[in-house]
Specification:
This is Phosphoribosyltransferase domain-containing protein. There is one protein chain. With 114 residues, this protein is an alpha+beta fold. It has a domain of 70 residues. The chain has three helices and four strands. It is extended, with a radius of gyration of 18 Å. The termini are far apart.
Length: 114
């Protein structure tokens, strides 16, 4: 991912500080295996470590880049972890894909009820 971002910045002729500024430091059960015990974003934030030394002084915004947005819990947890240290920081997310859930009501014809 890092090399891809560096290449994109070079092609755009811009200098972006690209850093791995946050990592997950404790393992959690995958959300799809723990439907009844999923972590709330506030709890998930405790599983992340922000590497402050990678964030240049004066940084006003951080763009978190990840492969898939499923429920948003990991993204929100990372955002909370960053904002605990940098309350005024703007945090945005960029994701390659998003999981789309099926609509459980798609096959229901409401005219049957009226």
């Amino acid at each position: 991912m890092r090399q891809t971002l560096d290449n994109a910045a070079a092609k755009l002729n811009c200098r972006l500080p690209i850093a791995e500024c946050i990592t997950q430091v404790s393992n959690t059960e995958p959300d799809h295996e723990s439907v009844d015990s999923r972590l709330y974003p506030e709890d998930r934030a405790d599983t992340y470590q922000v590497h402050q030394e990678t964030i240049p002084s004066g940084t006003e915004a951080i763009l978190l880049i990840d492969d898939v947005l499923t429920t948003g819990s990991h993204y929100k947890g990372a955002e909370i972890a960053i904002k605990r240290l940098y309350p005024q920081m703007r945090v945005q997310g960029l994701f390659v894909a998003r999981r789309v859930h099926e609509n459980p009501f798609e096959e229901i014809d409401l005219s049957d009820f009226f």
